[in-house]
Design brief:
Layout lengths: L18 H4 L1 H19 L12 H5 L8 H7 L9 H22 L3 H8 L20
Length: 136
Amino acid sequence: MTGPTSKARPMSASAHPHPSRRSLPRRIRLLLLGAGLAGLGACTTFPDLDARMTEADARLEYPVLQPAEDVLQTATNNAIQPDTPDALQDRMAALNGRAEALRRAGFDPDTRKRLETDIDTAAPTGTPAEIPKAQP
């Protein structure tokens, strides 16, 4: 096996560029693409907002603007106060009392049967023409 022995030569920088050098043209392309898209967006015509107004809209008065300080002075404080838990407990007790009174009132047998009957969703429903009109 006689033959010339070759020494490994180092590769040039252009053969294996540094990652940041390799992506430089890509960055420029992305920058140009972004600038182009922004430029296309600038070519869009602005919508004619006045065409959307009706005559009634044009005759309406603008609302009166109020200074923020005046509005804030009239605002109520909805923060939780020391007596809030007691007030909520009282309200909950009143609502539970009303619910219990409704449970005790009960329903007549026909109403209870109607409430406990499952609704048949597969049954055909009437068309609007078949629904009777309410009598005054």
